[in-house]
Amino acid sequence: MKREEAWKLLTKYNQDEFHLQHAVTVENTMRYFAKELGYAEEEEFWGIVGLLHDLDFEQYPEEHCIKSQEIMREHGVEERIIHATASHGYGITVDIKPEHLMEKVLYAVDELTGLIGAVVLMRPSKSVQDLELKSVKKKFKSKGFAAGCSREVIQNGADMLGWTLDELITRTIDALKTFQE
User: Fold this and answer.
1) 180 close to 128: Cβ distance less than 8 angstroms
2) Fewer CB within 10 A of the end CB, N or C, for the chain?
3) For 110-129, what is each residue's pLDDT tens digit?
4) E strand or H helix at 140, and its extent?
């Protein structure tokens, strides 16, 4: 699957600017990690998984990671993309455990990019470029802040990767700095 095809499929089921921006943010974060973790030859694949991970969320939030599998199969999307995107709902809506390093990264950074994005919006600069770990950690501990971003999923993602929470947050901030203001 090419990026243009993935974008066309995404925009068929998603029109909300917030959801589209989140998809692109996760796509670019996944591309960064593909290169960073020694999978540069799979950068396009990692990006497409990031782009399509929430394909069903806007129209089918109650069937998230379930309905997307059906939609993708109807559109002839390859099974490894279907498995990878569905695995980020592990323990929430599906029993598809993240197995490949790429799936673990997706699981970990999906919620975290949302939390970091919310932190950035609260900053005077409105930029990730001057964001530090301590600012994210402070908001991470505040359960009322960006309450929709599951701290448990973020921590579980760090654990799956064998990284500390600080390492996951720092590396994700570094990723976001490469493509966001």
Assistant:
1) yes
2) C
3) 999 999 999 999 999 999 99
4) helix 133-141
